[in-house]
Amino acid sequence: MEEFIKKIETYNIINYLLPGIIFTIIFTYLTEINILNDNAGIAIVEYYFIGLVLSRIGSIIIKPILKGCKIIDEEKYEDFIDKEVKDEKIPILVREGNQYRTFIATFVVLIIIEINNIIQGNHDKWMTLITFITLIVLFILSYRKQLIFITKRIKNK
Questions:
Q1: What integer pLDDT is reported at residue 141 of this predicted model?
Q2: Which of 1, 140, 135, 154 is CA-nearest to residue 71?
Q3: Between the CA of residue 84 and those of 30, 55, 95, what are the distances in Å?
Q4: What are the pLDDT digits (tens) for 13-54?
Q5: Which DSSP letter does residue 65 get?
Q6: Residues 136, 107: Cα–Cα separation, whole Å
Q7: CB atoms inside a 10 Å sphere around CB 130
Q8: Do residues 97 and 147 touch, judged by C-beta distance below 8 A?
Q9: Is the pLDDT of residue 157 over 60?
Q10: Tens digit of pLDDT for each residue in 78-119?
């Protein structure tokens, strides 16, 4: 297990493990279904997988929706590849942007769960819903700002 943990890159910790942990804790609170695991090794794998799924939701669903709504815009992939080699800051900015996108997905999924709870009559926690909406807006704006930074670096270098 120690070998596995050592091999996990910072990117994977930030974009998979952290959102997986946050999601699991909030999910357990919202649903009272305990998916937290007492075995640390198994828990890390579970959190990592949940975070990976959330990251894919962000990449495959959230990103196209944001692009379709003209909230975000990106440079051509060829321009990105060319500038990425010349500007070491671009990969860092991309990782941070991907982190924001994963957190958008995390809170979108949690908001769907909470809406379901409210519809089912299991919760009457509108404040939780408002908090999730606020966090989604915060991370959408952060993601948008990060992509603007990347675009400016690509265009100016």
A1: 97
A2: 140
A3: 41, 22, 12
A4: 888 999 999 999 999 988 888 888 889 889 999 999 999 999
A5: H
A6: 6
A7: 11
A8: yes
A9: no
A10: 878 888 888 888 888 888 999 999 999 999 999 999 888 888
Long-range contacts of 92-97 (CB under 8 A, 24+ apart): 93/146, 93/149, 93/150, 93/153, 94/150, 95/10, 95/11, 95/14, 95/15, 96/146, 97/143, 97/146, 97/147, 97/150
Please count the other Cβ atoms lying within 10 Å of the Cβ belonging to residue 1.
Answer: 10
Instruction: Give the separation between CA 98 and CA 15, rounded to whole angstroms.
Output: 7
* Structure token pair of residue 31: 């649903």
Centroid of chain to Cα 77: 21
Q: In angstroms, rounded to a whole number, what is the distance separating the alpha carbons of residues 42 and 152?
A: 42
CA distance linking residue 125 with residue 84, whole number of Å: 45
How far the first Cα of the chain sits from its last, in Å, is 42
- Determine the Cα–Cα distance for residues 85 and 90; give it in Å rounded to an integer: 9
**Token pair 């930074």 is at which residue?**
149
